[in-house]
Specification:
Cofactor: Mg(2+)
Largest sheet: 8 strands, parallel
Radius of gyration: 26 Å
CATH architecture of the largest domain: Alpha-Beta Barrel
Bound molecules: alpha-methylisocitric acid, magnesium ion
CATH superfamily of the largest domain: Phosphoenolpyruvate-binding domains
Strand order of the largest sheet: 1-13-12-11-6-4-3-2
Strand content: 5-15%
Shape: globular
Structural class: alpha/beta
Organism: Saitozyma podzolica
Keywords: Lyase, Magnesium, Metal-binding
Protein name: Isocitrate lyase
Family: Belongs to the isocitrate lyase/PEP mutase superfamily. Isocitrate lyase family.
Number of domains: 3
CATH class of the largest domain: Alpha Beta
Oligomer: single chain
Number of helices: 19
Helix content: 40-55%
Length: 502
Amino acid sequence: MIPTAQQQSDWSDPKSISTWWSTPSQAHFHRPYSAELVASLRSPFAEFWPASVQATKLRQTFSAHYAKGTASVTIGATDVISAHLMADAGYDTIYVSGPTCSTMDNATQDFGADMADYPYETVPNKVRQLFRSQLMQHKVSATRRFRGEAVAALDVDRLVPIIADADTGHGGQTANMKLAKLFVEAGAAAIHLDDQVPGTKKFGAKTAGRVLVPVEEHITRLLAVKLQFDVMGAECMIIHRTDAETAGYLTSAISPQDRPYIIGCTNPQLRPLVATISASFSTSKSQAEAVEDGWIASAGLSTLDEAVLSQNPAEYSKWKAASEGQNVAEALATAQTLGLGVQWDCEAARSREGWYRFRGGIQPAIDRAVACAKYADILWTRTPATVEKDLEKFAKEVKERVPGAMLAYNLAGDIKGTDSEIKAFTTKLAKLGYVWQFLPLAGQSGTAVGVNTPIRAIKDDGVLGYLNTVVRPGKAAGVSTLDYAWQGGPVADATVAAVTLW
Ligand SMILES: C[C@](O)(C(=O)O)[C@H](CC(=O)O)C(=O)O
Ligand SMILES: [Mg+2]
């Protein structure tokens, strides 16, 4: 179904924008800005974005999965061939992953580990490439039908919605907006945004000590993207991702919502960590690290709640009730008002970079998902490893607090169990509400494994190796990208014939 709300006549009419915002795809979003503001930011010319059609299709896909307790299980596509073959195989979403772009399609071609430090057009460029190829293949099918062919492959929907990695949004709000715009222009149906600090991303899944922004700052990021979508009249979906499970730090202690996870020093004998390090400063990094380790070992690090509980157990409930919803500064003032004299200092525990210490885990991930539900379509926690009971807890608590919430999960390939348990895993997660599940690197690794066989065989046996490992098995399996039609032959033939007079 093509979104119809944004016609030329009412494109700049705030009333029509408000009407669009009350439709099912939009109604759950909380917008602190007005339809009048959005109208004022719009182009004088009504815009139509194919990405909106793709997003509408994606929403329908996810809603149908949610209703049935099934999921879209997908992989990161490396290139137009895998994207095409995924459509053949019946995938209903395609993922574009950061590491694939950083190692293969970085906009500056400065390849390397995924630190999300590539120029921000990198992932949109990849989406554009895949989407334009999908459009081309759609045309190939249409011209083949036009000339009377009737084969099943022509019924395959080539326009599988693409979901892409927007990392942290690559900067401040205006950068977030420009990035979102590139994704819409490129044809992305959905993008995911995480709550890490730009420039601090860690490589790989297990690396602990990620640095988060306060939850409100992450919401601002989601809102910047949503505002851009609204300005463009785009239906594109937003996937909230939190890295709270692997977090070790937070840039600011300002947020009441983050306070339960901020860690402080309870040992009054210690000078602040940074002062201790600089007092013993030496040129050796390992010595500085040893000083830090020693400091941490004697700091009695804990959350403020834990500090009050252990230092004033009798007053704990009173304190808990009085400090509800307060940030660190307020909660410490409350402790003073209650005469608790609690020994706890999160300033002293700040890292050398000035970051506050944060206790990562499933609970802050749940809290962040709940806090972001009004600003996103799908909620995702990036886990360091697959721990089934945590995934169950995440799903249960998030859905209790946000009825109907749809969830995502990066399968990352570390699921343990027998083959049949591993096979059943995605179905199990689907029943919990994880409607979108993906293996980001399966396309990249699968391409490597796939091409390795002919590479070896041709080296050993020349053309015979090619016949044995590419041509014959390719034909037997009906690999459609080996066909002349995939290269666009029917479109070229039809257009050339159409304009040739003799
Ligand atoms: C999903 C992810 O953002 C990606 O870009 O593919 C990465 C993948 C990975 O490092 O395994 C992530 O989860 O951070
Ligand atoms: Mg990524």
